[in-house]
Amino acid sequence: MALASAHDTLVVALRVQRPLLGAARGGDAEAVEKALVQEMERERADDRAHWEPLRRELAALRKGARGAGG
């Protein structure tokens, strides 16, 4: 929260991408914690969405390799 207060211009520029910065700027620790949890959940969902097709492709390759060798 101290950093957010010290770098007001940067916080204003980034708070759309990182909503927790607005809460940090306001000095609300509870809101920062909630926003951080929400941000982590979004990142995890994005990671799952990114990796799932790759996992399926890898599983298909493994299945194909087992079928070809046996």
Structure, explained:
The protein is an all-alpha fold and 70 residues long. It has one domain (2-69). The chain has four helices and no strands. It has helices spanning 2-6, 8-14, 20-26, 29-69. α3 (20-26) packs antiparallel against α4. The longest helix has 41 residues, at 29-69.
Integer-rounded radius of gyration: 21 Å
Mean pLDDT: 91
Biggest sheet character:
none
Class per helix and strand makeup:
mainly alpha
Report the portion of residues in β strands.
Answer: under 5%
Low-confidence stretches: none
Element order: H for helix, E for strand: HHHH
The number of distinct helices, counting runs of at least 4 residues, comes to: 4
In total, the number of domains comes to: 1
Shape: rod-shaped
Distance between the termini: 60 Å
Q: What percentage of residues falls in helices of 4 or more residues?
A: over 70%
Counted beta strands:
0
